Amino acid sequence: METSLEDVGYQLWAGALLLCDYLLHYGDSIQLQAKHSGILDLGAGLGITSIVAAMFASWVICTDYRVDILAQAESNWHRNKWLLPQVKCEDVLFKVLDWNCGDNFHIADKNNSNKYAFEESHKQILHSTNTILAAEVVYDEDLTDAFFKTIYHLLLYPPAKNVLVTLEKRIVFRAENLDVCSPAYEHFHKNLDDLVTVDEGPVRFCAEQISTSFPQYFQYTRTKEMVSFK
């Protein structure tokens, strides 16, 4: 059984649980880093990473590209926030962010009744965020390209930001070479290599693969294909 590209946001992926484990294990250091700042969650889907992030950050902006998915994430937040052992932020913002739009953070006009649209007052909050989360966003090459363009745009604004990415390599069989590979992961890594070699402009980028040996708090199968980057 496969999940269509349009509906990937409605599935809870193992990579999101891996990122939640990371947040829970390193929560104290994340809380110190985000003491007067917040966390931006890209492609948040059902919102579980945003819910866990709310335990440690001053504010959380949960984003996805579809209003219906955001509405489900918001419902999940309101139903589960009372179960958290601690909540650092008072509330989570849920906003539409389409990586394929030239202006990712399109500001709604005053007559726009869509509560999930970014408003002018959110600009400063957005740019002052110092931690960005992205779980299981690597599955389509065009979307991966759009993701990196969005990341590049965000990292241009101070303060310095950490981006945490978790994913599970999708292994396929390549008939022409009679071997297995992960095209989506390879394309992700190419984009990552391109980003860190940027040598012009106001900022510099660095990236590293980080160990996934931290404790497991959620119930899922943590395979060797699951990786994380910072």
From TrEMBL:
User: Is Transmembrane given among the entry's keywords?
Assistant: yes
Q: What are the recorded GO MF terms, alphabetically?
A: protein methyltransferase activity
The record's InterPro entries line, in alphabetical order, gives: Methyltransf_16, METTL22, SAM-dependent_MTases_sf
Domain of life (superkingdom): Eukaryota
Among the GO biological process terms of this entry, one is: methylation
Q: Name one GO cellular component term.
A: nucleus
Q: Name one Pfam family in it.
A: Methyltransf_16
Annotated membrane-spanning segments are: 39-61
Q: Which UniProt keywords apply?
A: Membrane, Methyltransferase, Transferase, Transmembrane, Transmembrane helix
Q: What protein am I looking at?
A: Methyltransferase-like 22
